[in-house]
Design goal:
By secondary structure, this protein is α+β, with helices and mostly antiparallel strands. The longest helix has 16 residues, at 36-51. The radius of gyration is 26 Å and the shape is globular.
Length: 482
């Protein structure tokens, strides 16, 4: 029997779980017992990285095949191990140990909650858990992370007037895959998810638990959910030209909204008729997978401490805009998302962990990569990402990257041998004032080095020119112009 977490629900190794074997594979085959120092260092690194992200659990005593190994600790050596482990962390880290048993063998589970402070390994090294890996942080990133740490703590606030009776049991059943008694739910939500705290023995709920499962979401947040606004035209008008044609509020706990997203998209997002070979078929103006990913990301990552505004979805004739309260969290930059670097920093790590374990969110840090790929696959412009004031904005445009006029325009360059990526960047630039950047090139699915080489080829062919020497902005040179 393979083991995931110390619960019956299987959770694959990754962002929130790290198995550690007591043995190391040998090059010539077989296994060799690890030293105590090796086990300590592996354990400390993963626990610190998880505490700096969304929390998680390290399981000691699992073989590389996922089978429980025999515990190598006596009671005395285990206490020595814990003492040495605790000395790794600065500031001290609260580690919870449990000893589940399967097939007559025990193994060790060490879990940590997200930390309000950055946990460093002496002397001053810090790691962040990203998609199942422990990523080392530079001193500059440690400083930035410390400055932004408080924004992750709104969802962890414990509400004194809450109780388990405030949770929707049908939504809890969807989460766990079966009906649960409130007593069973209490155990699961307490550990490993950290969604419950106790006051004089009475379980109280965090904001994260209520945002996910509340029976009455308005009791806990002034603007839960999202607001959908459909407008006529491509600009927002006021007064006599007022052009809002539809306004719908989808206000519910997060998991209820996500469960109803497909029906909502079917009812309110436009379809268009396209011709494919000799047949006509209906297709959504926006790729459904991309649209769902944008909305789910907004629900997971919005700043819930800004209660005066809901997530807003504006649908114009030519584009769809999703506005999420709060800028980018932590040290994340727009470039990280555009270049699809897989960086991850969650403003709401407790909420993100639940959505990840349910399979609703993809591998951590990969959501925007999915959005880019879906838009590209459907022949549409890449998503536009902006931060305006205290709001994060994603724009999906429904105009094909290559319409008939663009295909006709591209014939100006037919004497040049261009690959498909170079053709796509020319089409992209035509839709953006004949200007593009090296970052725009990377948005179309290539890495920085490939972008550099292929842009250099376009310059050598006389198709584009740099606007500034050593700059990264380029302009198309149309035939007959200089």
């Amino acid at each position: 029997m393979k083991v995931g977490l110390s619960l019956s629900k299987e959770i694959k190794p990754g962002q929130f779980w790290q198995p550690i074997s007591f043995f190391r594979p040998q090059r010539k085959g077989g296994y060799k017992k690890k030293s105590l120092k090796e086990i300590l260092e592996e354990t400390a690194c993963s626990l610190a990285a998880m505490a700096n992200a969304g929390g998680g659990e390290v399981t000691l005593g699992l073989s590389p095949a996922g089978e429980p190994e025999e515990i190598l600790f006596t009671q005395r050596s285990w206490q020595i191990f814990l003492s040495h482990l605790n000395n790794f962390f600065s500031p001290p880290l609260n580690i919870k140990a449990t000893f589940p048993e399967t097939e007559g063998k025990k193994f060790i589970c060490l879990s940590v909650d997200p930390s309000p402070e950055i946990i460093c390994l002496r002397p001053g090294k810090a790691f962040l858990r990203v998609d199942g890996r422990n990523i080392p942080l530079s001193q500059a990133k440690i400083k930035t992370l410390k400055e932004t740490r408080l924004e992750t703590w709104h969802e962890r606030e414990v509400l004194t007037k809450s109780s388990l009776a405030d949770l929707d049991e049908s939504l809890l059943a969807q989460f766990w895959g079966k009906s649960l008694s409130l007593a069973e739910a209490e155990k699961i939500l307490y550990r490993p998810y950290g969604l419950i705290a106790y006051h004089h023995g009475t379980p109280l709920l965090t904001r994260a638990a209520l945002y996910l499962w509340a029976k009455d979401p308005w009791r806990w947040h002034a603007r839960p959910g999202l607001e959908f606004i459909r407008l006529e035209g491509s600009t927002k008008e006021e007064g006599p030209n007022y052009n809002i044609k539809e306004r719908i509020r989808l206000e519910a706990p997060i998991l209820r909204i996500i469960a109803e997203l497909n029906d909502f998209i079917d009812q309110h997002i436009q379809e268009r008729v396209i011709r494919q070979d000799l047949f006509f078929k209906e297709k959504f103006v926006y790729p459904v997978a991309a649209l769902k990913e944008v909305i789910i990301n907004a629900l997971a990552h919005r700043d819930y401490s800004l209660e005066g505004r809901a997530i807003e979805v504006y649908m114009y004739d030519d584009r769809l805009e999703v506005l999420s309260p709060g800028g980018l969290p932590g040290f994340l930059k727009i470039d990280h998302l555009q270049e699809r670097k897989g960086m991850h920093y969650a403003r709401n790590p407790l909420i993100v962990r639940v959505l990840t374990d349910m399979g609703i969110m993809h591998s951590v840090g990969q959501g925007f990569s999915t959005i880019f790929k879906e838009m590209q696959k459907n022949g549409l412009n890449p998503p536009e990402i902006k931060v305006s004031g205290n709001c994060f904005q994603v724009v999906l445009r429904n105009a094909p990257l290559m319409d008939e006029s663009t295909l006709l325009w591209l014939k100006n360059f037919k004497t040049h041998l261009l690959n498909s990526r170079q053709i796509r960047i020319l089409a992209y630039a035509r839709a953006h004032g004949l200007i593009f950047s090296s970052a725009d090139y990377q948005k179309l699915g290539v890495d920085r080095d490939t972008a550099y080489v292929e842009i250099k080829e376009l310059i050598n062919k006389g198709i584009v020119k740099q606007l500034k020497r050593h700059g990264k902005i380029y302009q198309i040179i149309e035939p007959g112009r200089t």
